[in-house]
Amino acid sequence: MVNAHDLLWGMTPAHLPAEAPAWAVEAISAGHPVVVRRAVAEPGFVAVGVRGRLREQRFAAVMPAAAVQRCVTPQALRSVISPRDLPALRALATLRPVLADEDWGVTGSAGFELATGIEALHEQSDLDLILRTPEPLTRGDAEDLLAILDTAPCAVDLQLQTPFGAVALRDWAGGSRRVLLKTASGAHLVLDPWQAVA
């Protein structure tokens, strides 16, 4: 069972559709992992995204589940130390003790770099994190956590993973009654991200 943001190895250029851009074929040919995305895939397949070198190079595809050779979860990356000195990596170092008692992980460019050793971060990169919250997090606790994250050396984008999807911590800590919950069937405006979408 794979989850959104897991990194998967084993996809080949043959798995890409004919319209895949050249950079996507190049990335897969180089053995780069793909990232599991939130989308509904046919039985036996996993919805994935291919990353290119540039931020705008993202390609949605599907991968046969049987082709998966290795899976690295965001949680597996939280203790990986990089030799590089960048704001996102400094932010990660400062936040490790803050999140030590939580079920959290590293996603986005930082997660990709920590998992592969391929340089994906730069000086202006945000730090993307996921926090698994099977039980509801109060808005007050969300505000407190956001206040800590906002002291980090770079922008931190933390997603709360509820049993029904993901909501941005910044949204949940904000003043709006309804927040955007990202699910496999799309994004929904909800009052409570810990309730199933009707």
Automatic annotation (TrEMBL):
Keywords, ordered alphabetically: Nucleotidyltransferase, Transferase
Protein name in the entry: Phosphoribosyl-dephospho-CoA transferase
Phosphoribosyl-dephospho-CoA transferase MdcG N-terminal domain segment(s): 4-74
A GO molecular-function annotation: nucleotidyltransferase activity
Domain Phosphoribosyl-dephospho-CoA transferase MdcG C-terminal stretches: 77-192
InterPro entries: Holo-ACP_synthase, MdcG_C, MdcG_N
Pfam families per record: MdcG, MdcG_N
